[in-house]
């Protein structure tokens, strides 16, 4: 490290002693000061010395008045070097010591300990610092393992160790549903999933109704999205998902997550929560198509090439009528699909939507149930993979002598329990109630059809988007209607 302009800055002499140390080891502040001042005289720094003395303070904490004063001088660029007689005068905790040295280096300040011949301004001093850093990193990993174990144990006990989410209160470290807020959570999921409102519209409606978020703040797009994606509302505990060690928070690899299902009181049922996530992950429709006064604008596709079909006009000046025409045909001439009268296509669509109820029990519902099973099975596989990865790390820690055999056995039992629970869940998924899903779909279809017949097209389309993903024209009177439900 090159220290620039050191002639205009001071050399800081830092001395510390606690009452216990002076009685036990005979360490005195006078002795420390004399040794450090003698070193400065030998190096020709005698005229640039500034003294910082903490009398009667332990090295277990960095909360010391003169150390804080020293930090202020360093941050103001007034110190070129910090000197101590021994490393433990600065701190007895390696992590604290390295944190302080790192802060010194950020401000181009050398750190010197005369007893250990430690000087971060020399190659040997920097090498020693790297070795200490490696040791500290090892210690951080051990601490991390212990924290993970404690969090996993707490989660299995149903305990919550951070601030409670909106909709809950904390009682003896256990989440308890707070019904006034839980009612708002259910309302937000309904507005997004069943009424077709986006994040901004939901935030605006809640703010207009005078419903505050946590700490009496107004709702925002971000706060609504975070609430709608938080798995706590379906009773799932997720920890260690975000890396907050850097300025920019990042999502960690899912193998490092701690995920435990059904260990918290749920406000939203799992099926509703999953449907909300699926809707968020679908491609959005262009704003212009959303506000189009034509029922199938933005979701009608060409059965010949797959391109979107846009609205146009045909016929004579006195007898003009709306048509749906393939965009690839209209703009590029690359598709030979014909145009269709819009009124006819929309009539086919309404007939097809109404007839879906007749095929629910025979075709549609079994297909949707199978898709739900596949999705749930994938999540179970992720939990098993994460459990196996944790066990693998514990095996490595046991081999290195970092943990006891009992810890390894507990992790193995935990892994086997997760595998067994997921196998049991597979059997339970086979018993999905088809009739319940059928009833939900019939009710949804009726609500959408009523909206189309009774509301303005722009308002009806908002509800239609909560049921239908896309409609494909296959030919005269032939449509393929794809639903959003699973």
TrEMBL record:
Any coiled-coil regions, as ranges: 405-435
GO biological process terms on file: DNA integration
CDD domains associated with the record:
SR_ResInv
Q: Which residues form the active site?
A: 18
Gene3D superfamilies linked? Putative Large Serine Recombinase, Chain B, Domain 2, Resolvase, N-terminal catalytic domain
Q: Which InterPro entries match?
A: DNA_bind_recomb_sf, DNA_bind_recombinase_dom, Recombinase_CS, Resolv_N, Resolvase-like_N_sf, SSR_resolvase, Zn_ribbon_recom_dom
Respond yes or no to whether keyword Coiled coil is given for this record: yes
Name recorded for this polypeptide: Resolvase
- Which organism does this sequence originate in? Paenibacillus wynnii
Q: What is the lineage of its organism?
A: Bacteria, Bacillati, Bacillota, Bacilli, Bacillales
